[in-house]
Design goal:
Largest sheet: 6 strands, parallel
Shape: globular
CATH class of the largest domain: Alpha Beta
Order of helices and strands: HEHEHEHEEHEHEHEHEEHEEHEEH
Radius of gyration: 36 Å
Mean pLDDT: 91
CATH superfamily of the largest domain: Response regulator
CATH architecture of the largest domain: 3-Layer(aba) Sandwich
Strand order of the largest sheet: 2-1-3-4-5-11
């Protein structure tokens, strides 16, 4: 083969290869470009939890008043989860210290504060007036500012049911009460306890010893001892510790738990516990706060009807017919067919308070400063 012919053949082979490559490229389908990736949507910002503070007058382990408030706090924390953040300060004295605690709570971002004792009243007013963006709830009070409400449990209903049991169980016909401070709430409970007992036996008499403190176990025990030495064999209390009940067990008489279930402290002496459940009210207010519609400027007073008050753990020593009577009263309080404060009713000086068949109105019930017939002595400070 000549060199010229060889070069011609090589050119033709190269041209053929190029042609095949070109045709292959032209026959290949064009692939679609990948779709652009959309940016991920930003998650909505999570709302900060509502901070809720509780101010307690006695230790959370008092077994009664403060213990029940603490159970209510725990219940709402569990119910609302990370929507709220609760905190508390215990053993806050009724005085200027309570104002400091409330202001400190507000400074830490608490927008809802529950002040759980009567003696905080003036300080709730001051803090509320200065901090209009904070909602304040005051237990057992009666004064309110624009951003506060008052609330209470109808503890006198529990006292009356306990009185029914006391009236059936006393052998000396003399019952007693260890009382805290002489405000209408406490005087009302004393009277209701005695009225309950007298509904079983109208001849029953009662004695009262005041300790002028909500929580002072030594003083409570001393007062209980004084009552027992005076012939009392069934006791009620309006104080915060189980000291009265423990003293009753030591001395072989009966007593009741108050505000919380105190049955474990003195099982032999325990006739029943008049228990407050704050959970229904705390649930309502926290939900209202989350919804931005707290009902300030009002007073809320809940009892047996609302599930906020009951007499529980009635002793096996109590006859069934007495328990049945308690059940009847409980049902009457629920449906409104039974009235505790109904005439005829006299005070222990013989003055008529309510005529036969007359039912006490709210101003009457909330301003009681007298003892009903059958109670010895006079209310401290009463005119």
């Amino acid at each position: 083969m000549s060199k010229l012919h060889k070069r011609t053949v090589l050119k033709m082979v190269a041209l053929s290869a190029l042609t095949v490559a070109t045709l292959a490229a032209c026959g290949k389908k064009e692939e679609a470009a990948p779709a652009p990736v959309a940016p991920a949507a930003e998650a909505p910002a999570k709302a900060d939890p509502l901070k809720v503070g509780f101010v307690y007058v006695s230790p959370i382990g008092d077994g009664g008043w403060t213990f029940q408030h603490e159970l209510g706090r725990k219940a709402v924390q569990e119910k609302f989860g990370d929507k709220i953040e609760t905190s508390f300060v215990e053993s806050v004295a009724e005085g200027p210290d309570s104002e400091r605690v409330m202001r400190d709570m507000a400074g830490q971002g608490n927008k809802l504060i529950f002040a759980t004792s009567f003696g905080y009243q003036e300080y709730v007013q001051k803090v509320g007036a200065d901090l209009p963006d904070v909602n304040l709830q005051h237990a057992t009070g009666y004064k309110r500012v624009a951003n506060s409400a008052t609330y209470d449990a109808k503890t006198f209903e529990g006292a009356y049911m306990a009185g029914i049991v006391a009236g059936a169980m006393t052998k000396t016909k003399t019952i007693g009460v260890v009382a805290s401070v002489p405000i209408p709430e406490v005087v009302r409970n004393i009277n209701s306890f005695v009225l309950g007992a007298q509904s079983v036996d109208p001849t029953i008499k009662a004695k009262v010893v005041w300790v002028n403190s909500w929580f002072s176990p030594p003083q409570e025990a001393e007062a209980a001892t004084s009552l027992i030495n005076g012939g009392v064999d069934v006791m009620y209390q309006n104080t915060n510790s189980p000291a009265v009940l423990k003293t009753a067990e030591e001395r072989g008489v009966y007593a009741f738990g108050k505000d919380g279930d105190m049955s474990a402290y003195a099982p032999k002496a325990h006739l029943g516990s008049a228990v407050i459940d704050w959970t229904p009210y705390y649930t309502k207010v926290v939900q209202d706060a989350l919804d931005g519609k707290v009902e300030n400027g009002q007073n809320f007073w809940w009892g047996v009807k609302e599930g906020a008050m009951d007499l529980i753990k009635i002793s096996d020593d109590v006859p069934q017919e007495v328990k049945d009577k308690v059940d009847q009263v409980r049902q009457g309080l629920k449906d409104g067919t039974f009235q505790i404060w109904k005439g005829p009713l006299k005070d222990n000086a013989g003055n008529e308070l309510l005529a036969d068949g007359a039912v006490a109105d709210m101003p009457f019930i909330t301003s009681i400063k007298f003892y009903v017939d059958g109670i010895e002595g006079t209310v401290p400070g009463a005119k």
